[in-house]
Amino acid sequence: MLPWRKPRSTDAETAAPVLTTGARRGRKLRTFALAFAAITVAASAGAIALYRKTMHDIGPLSLTDVQQLSAVVLDRDDRLLRPFTTADGRWRLPLDPKDVDQRYLQMLFAFEDRRFYRHHGVDPRAVLRASLQAVRHVRLVSGASTLTMQVARLVDGKHERTGSGKLRQMARAWQLENALTKTEILRLYLRLAPFGGNVEGVRAASLTYFGKEPRRLSVGEAALLVALPQSPEIRRPDRNPQAARRARHHVLQRSVAAGVISQAEADKADEERIPLARLEFPKLAPHLAEAELAAHPGEPVYRLTIDRDLQGSLEKLVASHAALLGDKLSAAILVADHTTGEVLAHVGSAGYLESGRQGAVDMVTAIRSPGSTLKPFIYGIGFEAGLAHPETLIEDRPIRFGTYAPKNFDEDYHGTISIREALSKSLNIPAVRMLARVGPGKLVGRLRRAGVEAQFPQKSEPTLAMALGGTGLTLHDLAQLYCTLARGGSAITLTHRMGERVRVLAQTKVKPLANAHRLMSPVAAWYVSDILKDAPPPADAKGGRFAYKTGTSYGYRDAWAIGYDGRHVVAVWVGRPDGTSVAGMMGRTAAAPILFDAFARISQKRVPLPPAPEGALQVAGTELPPPLKHWREANEDAPAGPYLEQPLAISFPPDRSEIEAADLEDGPLQLKAEGGALPLTWLVDGTPIVSDPHTREATWQPAGSGFAKLTVIDANGRVDRSAIRVK
Q1: Who wins on pLDDT, 625 or 205?
Q2: How far is CA 602 from CA 130, 315, 363, 428, 482, in A?
Q3: How far is the C-alpha of 447 from the C-alpha of 372, rounded, in Å?
Q4: Which of 18, 28, 472, 531 satisfies CB 3.0 to 4.6 Å to 367 for a cystine?
Q5: For residues 448 and 441, is the Cβ–Cβ distance under 8 A?
């Protein structure tokens, strides 16, 4: 045997198994598999334990705080008029993914989370990549954050760049994914993403930096909005435009690599300017917006009937005219569609922030003297009663009513003129003559039918001075009255809230069962409109396109101009909000030019005034029936006839109406009559009740619920009846 050779095995030795190389490798693999399985089980158990501990530490998910959004006021087409900050002073506007530029969303996914719709809040690939980078660099290089994790951080209000902080974000992300859909998570990101200062969400950022809604963004704008939330304070374009530009470039190049945009588009977007200042949020119709917020607190969205384009145009118009009129003067405009009762524009002042003009005061709702603007209604009621016709001749000469001696504005007299000319020139004496026949009380009652309550000093009664502005009304009141006139005398209540039911009846305690209340008959309303359409226009303006009336209050404190066509009513006020007199300020020279410019800015084609209704008497003065040719005072002898008879009628409560018993708890029911010769006698179910025979009013306290028949009889035996029900 050679010394270096190993001796042969014995039989016993040869009986033992000999392990081949493959067998040994298999044993090692099994051992490794068992060890790996043990490690995996241990890691899984540890992960589950860590997950449970993290879930226990962070507690349940709460979205209460992040659901608080800025209240927004929208126009009739859901366009933004004005937003308000949240309770903690943040601009956080509602936004849905469908309302943002889709190119922005593509760039957002390419830059932040390509697998957003394929992972469950945490992207394993991103976690593995971040873990390998952390091992290699011995620090956190990337956070592996998904959009869901970013939303989780925003919901939690914590941003910890540590391992435990990331675990917390992951746990919150899983909670979000289990509670919300992908669209809902994306919606939260679009609303909560930080953009510097108190600006949160893509919509607020787009309005702040670009002055527009995010529905249509340029490539550069979209890239900037993607880049800012990563470091909103460092990259704020108004503070560090260079950092914002670099971040935008990085997003653009990542978008090119992802195939979202081309290199040419990226190069062009790189040349777009960076916004260097924050813009103010829209503040259109501020007075109406503030009033809505105060009247209906807590609502997230206020939808108004306002037309944003018209509102913005008229706000500029008022500001420019006020600048020409004087330093402390203001102006207001109300535009309404009288076919629907919807308010299309509400300009309360010449500038909401103009302290010198007291711009915060809403002059649309301020009570002022209406000047001569009530004259058309006085004449209209007289036309309806058969007292006169537009071609009736009336005297414009000195006259006295007791101690009251009205004078014309120019302190001149025009002799015998037609009522058409008297109203067209807004002469005072003929209007007072007409009101003396109609009665101030009846005028107040008719205004009430149109839903307008004339204001008087406490314990004072309506007087003949109403013809010249001796009462208190608002611009809104006058717009509503002229809407009624434009509708042929049919009353309608103005509304500025979308979806609010338009009330065609005047507001009273009674629920009328018959047709809408009328301020005057269609024929009388047409007579008035036919006169007002020929009113002389202001200098350098073309008349005849719409009917209008001007007015100037006593002492040159208020200048008015109200006009209407077949669809729109435009009401204008000019003056000082503090009521100070402005020498020489008149409706014709101060308010009428604004009125004509406002009509020119109504975008829709103006609708012509309606034609004469059936029954309108379109003849010359010489062809009128004898009783209508010349005006007669109440004490003048005149032949009886249908044109001069003022029939007796119960004006309140109207026939076939229902009265709530609860409305009578504060006092008895007021009974009112119109026309007839005094004294009047009132009966309820045939039994006389106590009343003053020298007035046209009486009071009655129903004994209980049920039906009742009211009867009034005048000195000439004329009778009118009204059947009512007390509920």
Answers
A1: 205
A2: 60, 13, 21, 32, 18
A3: 15
A4: 472
A5: no
Distances (CA, A) of 709 to 123, 366, 653, 663: 81, 41, 11, 19
List CB contacts of 312: < 8 A, sequence separation 6 or more.
Answer: 284
Q: Please give the structure tokens belonging to residue 142.
A: 């990337």
User: Quick one: CA dihedral 17, 23, 28, 29, positive or negative?
Assistant: negative
CB of 351 closer than 8 Å to CB of 328: no
From the CB of residue 30, how many other CB atoms can be counted at a distance below 10 Å?
Answer: 10
pLDDT at 517: 66
Distance CA 151, CA 173 (A): 8
Rounded-to-10 torsion of CA 322, 323, 327, 333: 10
Average pLDDT over residues 488-509: 73
Strand 568-575 with 558-564, pairing: antiparallel
The whole-angstrom distance between residue 125's C-alpha and the CA centroid of its chain comes to: 50
Q: pTM for this one?
A: 0.79
pLDDT in tens, 289-326: 999 999 999 999 999 999 999 999 999 999 999 999 98
Q: Which pLDDT score, from 0 to 100, does residue 641 have?
A: 42
Whether 443 and 554 have beta carbons less than 8 Å apart is answered as no
Of 313, 330, 372, 691, catalytic: 372
**Polymer length of the chain:** 727
**Residue 372 annotated in active site:** yes
The radius of gyration computed from the CA coordinates of the chain, to the nearest angstrom, equals 40
Question: 662-699 burial by CB neighbour count: b if 16+ within 10 A, else e?
Answer: eeeeeeebebbbbbbeeebebbbeeeeeebeeeebebe
Mean pLDDT of 595-604: 89
8 A C-beta contact, residue 389 and residue 531: no
Strand partners, 558: 575
Catalytic-residue membership of 112: yes
Catalytic residue, candidates 70, 112, 200, 349:
112
Sheet with strand 687-688: strands edge to edge: 510-512, 657-659, 719-726, 706-713, 681-684, 687-688
CB-CB neighbours of 328 under 10 Å: 16
What whole-number distance in Å separates Cα of residue 684 and Cα of residue 550?
45
pLDDT interval class at 126 (50, 70, 90): low
Q: In which band, very low, low, confident or very high, does the pLDDT at 18 lie, cut at 50, 70 and 90? A: low
Alpha carbons 671 and 686: distance in angstroms, whole number: 15
Sheet strands (E) in 61-175: 72-74, 80-83, 91-92
Rounded CA separation 724/717 (Å): 23
Whether the pLDDT of residue 477 is over 70: the answer is yes
pLDDT of 2:
45
Whether the Cβ atoms of residue 479 and residue 571 lie closer than 8 Å to each other = yes
Q: What does DSSP assign to residue 671?
A: E
